[in-house]
Structures are given as structure tokens and as C-alpha cells.
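Q: what sequence does this backbone want?
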């Protein structure tokens, strides 16, 4: 039994505290009116801030498609970047050429403004067999990793891509046509 001066408190069993989601510490302080008032204000403050941040975003949800200018087929892999004031928002390019852009995660959108656009990770990487090597009397195949660019190198930098895009509240999508790399 515990006492806080005038009252005698009986601790709950471990099972009862677990069922109520209480810890020993919370039980000991829950009879203190100052402590319970502080808990209520803390919860109210958290809910207020959550509602404030959820409702105040002016980000524009932006999606689009990246296709080749010569035949309209989709760019099947890579990352698209939108740079503004030193910050970069990214979106993964899916197999059908579509993307969704955001700063912390793909779906959270972009604030309005003018962005420099670039593409990365668009290279196709393959492994090519280059013969056989004898290692301790055992023949082992030799491989070479070959990287084939799909798009012109200029698109890989925001400074050289020549792609800019203005995001406004009315913007919903941005479709991009890029030139294919020719061997």
C-alpha cells in the first residue's frame, strides 16, 4: 500500500495496469490534479498542432509522365528531381513512365514556384559475359558490367537540362518529353 498523506493508494496489479494501458509511474501521479491537468493540456496542444499543420499546407500535388520525344514510349526507370532555392523534391519514375513528386515523401507535393527539373538513375545496367577465367583449376565465367544511358546526359543536371516548370495552385500534372540517347 502507498500513501500520499491523507489517502492510501492501493497499487493495481500488473495485469490491471496493462489492461488499462497504465504504467507504475502514471498510476502514482494520476491522483495528482496538477499532473492530470498537464496531461490534458499536452494532449490538447498536440491535437491543435496536428490540425494546424494538416490544414495549412499549400503544397500542390504534382504527378506526370516522362516519355521519349521520338516515339512517345515511356522512360521506364529513374528519379525526377525538382530544384528550387537549394531544395530538391523527388519522385520515382515507374515502369509506365509516371511519377508523383514531393519533398519528404513522393505524395506530399510541392509549394508553388518555378523549378529546375532533372532526371537521374535512368541508365540500364546489364552484366555481359566476357569469357572464362581459370581459378585454381576451375573455370569461372568473367563478367563486365555495362551501363547504357537511355536519355541525353544534359537531363541529368538541373543546371543543364533546360527543363523548368512553374507549379501553381491550378497545376495538376507535368508531362515531359526527353530525347533518347543515340549510340
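A:
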Amino acid at each position: 500500500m502507498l500513501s500520499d498523506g491523507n489517502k492510501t493508494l492501493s497499487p493495481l496489479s500488473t495485469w490491471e495496469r496493462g489492461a488499462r494501458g497504465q504504467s507504475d509511474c502514471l498510476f502514482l501521479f494520476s491522483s495528482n490534479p496538477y499532473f492530470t491537468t498537464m496531461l490534458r493540456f499536452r494532449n490538447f496542444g498536440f491535437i491543435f498542432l496536428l490540425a494546424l499543420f494538416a490544414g495549412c499546407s499549400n503544397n500542390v500535388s504534382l504527378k506526370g509522365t516522362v516519355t521519349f520525344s521520338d516515339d512517345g514510349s515511356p522512360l521506364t526507370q529513374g528519379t525526377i528531381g525538382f530544384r528550387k532555392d537549394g531544395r530538391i523534391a523527388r519522385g520515382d519514375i515507374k515502369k509506365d513512365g509516371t511519377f508523383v513528386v514531393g519533398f519528404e515523401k513522393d505524395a506530399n507535393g510541392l509549394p508553388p514556384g518555378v523549378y529546375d527539373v532533372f532526371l537521374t538513375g535512368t541508365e540500364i545496367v546489364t552484366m555481359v559475359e566476357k569469357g572464362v577465367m581459370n581459378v585454381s583449376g576451375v573455370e569461372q565465367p568473367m563478367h563486365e558490367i555495362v551501363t547504357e544511358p537511355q536519355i541525353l546526359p544534359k537531363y541529368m543536371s538541373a543546371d543543364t537540362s533546360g527543363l523548368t516548370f512553374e507549379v501553381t495552385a491550378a497545376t495538376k500534372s507535368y508531362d515531359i518529353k526527353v530525347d533518347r540517347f543515340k549510340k
